[in-house]
Amino acid sequence: MGRVCGRQEGTTIALQRVAMTMVALLPQQLNVAPLGEALGVPEDGDAMAQEHEEKLQKLMEEAETFVQIKGGKKPRVLMVEWLDPLFLGTKGWMREIVEAAGGQVVETLDGEMNEEVDVVILALCGLSLGKTEQELLEGHVGPWWQALLDRTGDAPVPPVYIVDGTSMFTRPTRRLLVALEWLVHVLHEPDSSWLERSEFPYKIFDRTATMIPADQAASEDKARGEMKSPEMLEIEELHRLACENKQAMYTDPATGYSVMTTYILKERQVCCGNGCRHCPYGHANVKDPSRRKNKLAGDVFLKPRRRSKGIAKDAPGGQLLWPERVKDTSAGSGDSRNLVVVFWSGGKDSFLALSFLYEAYAAEHKPMPKVVLLTTIDPDTNVVPIQNISAQTIAAQAEALELPLCLVAVGLGDAYTSAVRSALHKIPGQMRPRKKNGKTSEENEAASSVAAVVFGDLHLEDIRAWREQTFGHDFQLRFPVWQKDYQSELLPSLKELCAKTGATISFSNVDTERLGSDTEWRVGQEYDWKQIKQRNEAAAAGAAQVDLMGECGEFHTCVKFPGMI
């Protein structure tokens, strides 16, 4: 163990011969300040130490809150540093990290295993995640392992988490804080969306798995570790520090090239389409699908990259849908315009809702509102849930309408409400004027509040009631197309809209079982309500009718404007 983790005599002698100073740090604690002094940058060392301390306190407070919610009960954690012979992480920072995460350290498995275990963490020193899993599958483990898995009685078999111990737990680097943050969520909310989105290198061990060949395990290890190599971890650390310091660039350690940070890309509020390494917009404007590497993370704000000829840069956008017969009564005066957020699915219903919203403002002789489109994107698939429209298509629609777009990375799970509500509250700040350097203008610092949130619901009472209960306390809600007659109002309006804008409507998702097999229904097919009406008329007596607008989920649509691929 000394040859692996300790200071080797040969290395010490060699350093003495070249008169190089060797700094030895205690393995029980992370000494950043002395390291800064040794490197000649004491201020940086002190600043980093302070930053780490603040992060540590924040995570410990979060863990303590979780423990209090559970009545003070702390999960019992078996931290394993070696499989056979069994070596438990009960000392040093391995112990401290468990306790800081709100856990209780399991001291031993000797005797009759009278000490219960709630969670097992395999953080083997010197082994990668894939190699650790291979060791388990090939049985390179002591008798304690099977005894743990064969437990009977009321106590359930604890979940087993395999981690990259060498990179994340056993070295005195800032990654210990990253590991602590992960452990807080594992111990107290293992089913949370935080873990689903996290890129922390871990895997839950499948206790039903059978032995796999060593070469296959190595191949899987390579695939899993491809994004978390030591080089990539170094890049992530450099990028994180640059963002925290609000820097536009950092230097790639391998190439020496300057790389733009997520911070500056978010400040610019534009996806340039060049496939930037840290693009926060999920490469929304990258045309070549093979170059779209990034997925959306968090919520981001995109402003239109260009305006139509003759349209002022500070215009609210949406002129394509503003009634031609009505002149905007407040051209050039942004302060008098309402800030309105439209839930934008990318389909015909939200298209109609936006158009009817403009019609209502024009009819009331109000200034054209500042509209922001809001779309939720599943971060795992990079498409709108259920609607099956890509983030790239949504961004192209916003570009065509010349409207700003807020993309929220969330699926349809428990995190949906909080993520959307958070995004809604951030939008006013995102709409503040920015200088060329990306900073918010000091003038007109007060952000306009959201005057209304708009939905394209047609007639489903339960959906509307849920929206009112969820968002109605914080915002005024508007439903411009609610309970309007299909054949006398909505469908004729949709036809006029398509003629006016040159847009086409096609299916983005179809439920072939509900639509029936008599006619071919496919994604990409042009939406024709008359064809659906014919289907209903030809259906047998008593057969379920298909909603002409697909409001009951029979199909979903996508709007495509001229120039969109």
From TrEMBL:
Gene3D superfamilies, per the entry: HUPs (3.40.50.620), Nitrogenase molybdenum iron protein domain (3.40.50.1980)
Pfam family, one: DUF5522
EC numbers for this chain: 6.3.1.14
UniProt-recorded Gene Ontology molecular function terms: diphthine-ammonia ligase activity
Superkingdom of source: Eukaryota
Residue ranges constituting the Diphthamide synthase domain according to the UniProt record: 340-559
Enzyme class, broadest EC rank: ligase
Record field: catalytic activity: diphthine-[translation elongation factor 2] + NH4(+) + ATP = diphthamide-[translation elongation factor 2] + AMP + diphosphate + H(+)
Name of the featured protein: Diphthine--ammonia ligase
Organism of provenance: Phytophthora kernoviae
Lineage: Eukaryota, Sar, Stramenopiles, Oomycota, Peronosporomycetes
